[in-house]
């Protein structure tokens, strides 16, 4: 037996859909049998498979607790933040490509698609290889088209946490066009480039650095890294746009959260905790993470 509280992500969703998201390997017949035998209860009352849930309700089911949400493919593991019939949200580790750069190469998409299914999961957006955090995969063509349209229409809010060099005391914005050199894969501020707007807010400061919350209004390549370097606050570990010799092995950038609203799911907010290397970088510089 197991029990769980209905989260804000699950509010308004059908009970059977929520159960399938938590126990994806549970046979449909076994789930429906439990409903017929009155073994699934919501707030102590017999539940029906199609009833809508409300945040805070307690659901009791006759199965063992769900295993740790890590899906393993032939290429490696993917840590699941959330999954239902529409979306698969994962916490991408640093060092892993979003899309393969060669046939059969390792990536988030390669790992997801090797698991199987009628529709091969598709990435709705990308994170740079060395950026960690929230990444969304679509589990149907319809959802892929809807989310892609929302992305282009800037209807999805993306929030990052960045550990930058120097002290930032007040919130600010960087409104500077960006131009990419395809040969060098390097971006620079240039009036001939595309419009780009970045908003930033300091969260906590340490010894010679600041942990910032950064919101992308636009989504240009390397936007956060270039914009923060442009104002003299490059990301720690970013040798491409910052000082060439640094202790960190990657730019200290993490996709902290994504919020969106879909007709099928309602309002959703997905968050990923800071990865270990960013936590250690903060602790070494006395950045107070307990206040966050």
TrEMBL record:
Gene3D superfamilies: Pseudouridine synthase, RNA-binding S4 domain. One of its GO terms (molecular function) is RNA binding. One of its GO terms (biological process) is pseudouridine synthesis. The keyword Hydrolase does not apply. Residues 86-230 form the Pseudouridine synthase RsuA/RluA-like domain. Pfam families: PseudoU_synth_2. Its EC number is 5.4.99.-. It catalyses: a uridine in RNA = a pseudouridine in RNA. InterPro entries: PsdUridine_synth_cat_dom_sf, PsdUridine_synth_RluA-like_CS, PsdUridine_synth_RluC/D, PsdUridine_synth_RsuA/RluA, RluA_PseudoU_synthase, S4_RNA-bd_sf. The keyword Cell division does not apply. Keywords: Isomerase, RNA-binding. Responsible for synthesis of pseudouridine from uracil. This is Pseudouridine synthase. It comes from Dethiosulfovibrio salsuginis.
